[in-house]
Amino acid sequence: MRIVGGSHRGRVLNAPEGRDTRPTLDRVREALFNILSHASRWYEDDFHPLYDGVVLDAYAGSGALGLEALSRGASKAVFFDTDRKAIAIVEQNIDTLKVGNQAKAQRADATKPPRAIEPASMVFLDPPYGKDLLEPSITALAAAGWIDANTLIIAERDPRDPQIGLAGFELCDSRKYGRCQIDIGRMAG
User: Fold this and answer.
1) Model's pTM, two decimal places?
2) For labelling alongside 125, which of 12, 56, 157, 184 has CA 20 to 30 A away?
3) Dihedral (Cα; 139, 24, 131, 150), 10-degree rounding
4) pLDDT, tens digit (0-9, with 9 covering 90-100), for 42-53
5) Taking the chain, what is the end-to-end CA distance rounded to the nearest angstrom?
């Protein structure tokens, strides 16, 4: 697994061992970030969620999504995972890329997150498949101040699972890549 674009392009990332983590494939990450590079089209002003604010990688695993965002111009990234080993891997990857001044990894559960200092401009949600964690995570992150009307939510799910059905969730884009479906949306303000 490697960073596929930006200032750290080609740098190799460590990934947690075992079956508990399912890293987003390089080709899927590349396609996703190509879509996100044009995300300003979903906003009425000059706001761009990749460059304007904090990125939250809420089911970090290796941290590849948040680190890719940093490589492509995000100013800050926060990483949550409940697994101590995953957080250790994220911290190793942060050290390897020398982005410690822009990144913070913490052991946290996206369904019971710590209070946010400020809303994230972009939230990556890539929970384990089949556990119905997307909607509870969005609800909890919004209640804790991580998600507001400007936050772009990028949710990865099994294509057989239903789309996010929360009241107020507006789907901006949805793409299928083999065994993964990526839904991009925002909560109505």
Assistant:
1) 0.92
2) 12
3) 10
4) 887 777 787 878
5) 37
Contact yes or no for 23/16 (Cβ under 8 A): no
In eight-state DSSP terms, residue 115 is P
Residues whose CB is less than 8 angstroms from the CB of residue 133 and which lie 6 or more positions away in sequence, other chains included: 59, 110, 111, 125, 127
Crossing angle, helix 26-36 and helix 64-71, to 10 degrees?
50
pLDDT of residue 141: 98
Give the span between the Cα atoms of 184 and 137, in whole angstroms: 15
Distance (Å, whole) CA 80 – CA 172? 24
Extract the runs of DSSP E, i.e. beta strands, from 20-129.
54-57, 76-81, 103-107, 120-125
Distance from C-alpha of 61 to C-alpha of 96, rounded to nearest angstrom: 16
Question: Nearest to residue 67, comparing CAs of 39, 34, 91?
Answer: 91
At which residue do the structure tokens 């494939």 appear?
25
